[in-house]
Amino acid sequence: MLSWGVPKTFAERLTHAQHTSGSLVCVGLDPDSAKLPQDLGKTGTPLYAFNRRIVDATFDIAAAYKPQIAFYSAVGAEEELVSSIRYIRERAPDALVILDAKRGDIGNTAEAYAREAFERYDADAVTVNPYMGADSVRPFLARPDRGALLLCRTSNSGAKDFQDLQVDGLPLYRHVARHAACQWNPHGNLMLVVGATVPREMAELRTAHPTVPFLVPGIGAQGGDLEATLAAGLDAQGAGLLISASRSIIYAGGSAPASIRAAAAELHGAINLGRNKS
Fold first, then answer.
1. Which of 108, 170, 242, 262 sits at a 20 to 30 Å CA gap from 52?
2. Which one from 66, 102, 160, 277 is the annotated catalytic residue?
3. Which of 192, 66, 81 is nearest to 129 (CA)?
């Protein structure tokens, strides 16, 4: 337990999750129904059973879990997502739950999306698309104990179509980061999504925003460079990152529990080795 006792704010909970796990690993819970082990199809709740397997294998390794809502809603399995998050709370009570929903709307619709994430699903944070501006983001940041993760410079190849566009001498993603850090973050409960596939851009963002934490997709199946990511993104305390991996962990070795654990442990070990070198 950290010196302040039970964490209250999202920032405290993030630090607590990283401290108690000794980890920067975020495990993505993206259960593609077509890829699930056949034995789980007999359970009646195969996505929930799959997630239990993953959490049981990684509960002491992961600082966070990130379920992608599309894999559940596409097959009408929202209640399996609810059950999965409840199980994370039981099995890994210090880990954060990030709902990967990439919401982005205004007014009462944004407020409804925030209630969905934080009340229906009991997520600690939710990914948000800032394209519509401040009023599409603020409802997700209104509660100091919950957080929002803004898409900033993402890991996909098409990100450059808009995110790299020059606006007043800076790429658009730098403007997103500046607004986020300087205008939208009074509770300190905002993170930026910055891909492992763009370490140069990550380094620029870290220099400009030394205390803002990053969620980092792109390690594993997308081919991001872990060593370059750590060099570019770690903060002065050797933290400031949640490094997310999904397919490379949850489908390792045919999704056998031992293989899932080994893949998560390998990433965890590689991250900590890199942190010690930095």
1. 242
2. 102
3. 192
